[in-house]
Amino acid sequence: MPKNNSLIKASAGSRRSTQKEKTRMLILDSARNLFNKSGFDKTSTRAIAKDAGVGIGTVFSHFPNKQSLLIAALLDDLSSTLKKATETLSDDVTVCDKLIHIAGYFYSYYAKKPDLSRTYLKEMWFVKGEWGGELFAQAHQFLSLLNKIFEEAIQTNEIRPEADTMLCARAFFSHYLNVLFEGLSEKEFDQGKMTDVLQSLVNQLVEGIGPHKNTQGANT
């Protein structure tokens, strides 16, 4: 009997956990849609609760404030986008192609929701506490992927073996963000144009850390 009771309790706990996650996702979907439709400033927590079909207390049991809702929605979207980008990443392409492939998925995401994306970027900087830590972890995950790509480029002799791969990753990330901000500063985010700009920057970056060219013939 005690064993059966333990199984029943475990099953009930699992159902509660599943329901809690479903409610969380329902709230985030409503928040994401309303932020995109009405704007962050004009969307109230009460409106999000009403749209999700839950009480406002339920919203606050998952998220302490409206900014945390915004950051949580962004983190979920970025995590999903990164997963799609890595799952479709080919090993049989150049380091430049890999980097542009990854960036392309994120630029496509931002291009679909330019107004919401501007709000995301405006609110995400210098966030402290738990959500600041979550954003830092997400950025670290992205940098780790970029670092791995540059490490693989050393193995394929595309860049010099002495290159600091994490510095390379940070350099690419800086270019990526710079182009993203440039694109979102315009009325419409032109993904093709921004990708071309990033492509030029990436080509220059990789050329600078590529294998030394043999100039002996030119000097004789």
TrEMBL record:
Residues 1-21 are annotated as: Disordered. It comes from the Bacteria. The keyword DNA-binding applies. Keywords: DNA-binding, Transcription, Transcription regulation. Residues 44-63 bind DNA. This is HTH tetR-type domain-containing protein. InterPro entries: DNA-bd_HTH_TetR-type_CS, Homeodomain-like_sf, HTH-type_TetR-like_transc_reg, HTH_TetR, Tet_transcr_reg_TetR-rel_C_sf. Residues 21-81 form the HTH tetR-type domain. One of its GO terms (molecular function) is transcription cis-regulatory region binding. It comes from Dethiosulfatarculus sandiegensis.
